[in-house]
Backbone:
């Protein structure tokens, strides 16, 4: 995870500012999903194609029940590819 630390705190703080989702849940999404995608592609957080705003919107949709967790993960992967 050392290689991904550039911009990680700022990314997290920006997501927290833009969503009502519990910070613990945000941390889980960043660590388990975003960092895993970045690691697979040898990228750092500041090189991510998923912006903090995009992750915030995705988590807000999940939190309101508009989409399921599995759908949110698929959308996140799709956003990462493009």
Residues:
């Amino acid at each position: 995870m050392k290689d991904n630390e550039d911009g990680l705190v700022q990314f997290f703080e920006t997501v927290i500012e833009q969503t009502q989702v519990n910070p613990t849940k945000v941390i889980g999404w960043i660590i388990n999903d975003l960092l895993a995608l970045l690691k697979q592609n040898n990228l750092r957080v500041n090189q991510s194609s998923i912006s903090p705003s995009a992750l915030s919107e995705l988590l807000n949709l999940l939190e309101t029940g508009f989409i399921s967790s599995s759908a949110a993960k698929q959308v996140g992967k799709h956003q990462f590819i493009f």
About this structure: The chain has a mean pLDDT of 88. Residues 2-81 form one domain.
